[in-house]
Give the backbone structure.
Amino acid sequence: MKIALATDGAMISPHFGHCSEFTVVTVENGKVIGTERVDNPEHQPGFLPEYLSKLGISCIIAGGMGPRAQELFAAKGMQVIVGASGSVAEVLQSYLAGSLEVGESACDHPDSAEAHQGHGSCSHGNHDDHHGHSCGHGK
């Protein structure tokens, strides 16, 4: 599977669409087998879901994302995790360990608060094996 983390240098970007690049991580059997940085080509409504889908991305991790973008990713069968923060290395390690803790979406769209309650297509709760987060990362 491929995961795209919205990043600004070594940190998770607070807003998916405005990140400087994506850190694309290829994972097999719960282990990282490849990492690359892909520049964020542009911020146009509806462009990034198509672009990242063509790169083979199946899960997106970001600090925040607007509700429309979340809907577009869900329509493509891509999972979305919002509310992540910290360094790329820490977030990725926690995600792969099944212990990624996320907060509220850092997205500043005024109409998005309700949409972020469900955190996209991921489920949150007290799952013993995922410590509150499940996003099908192939553990």
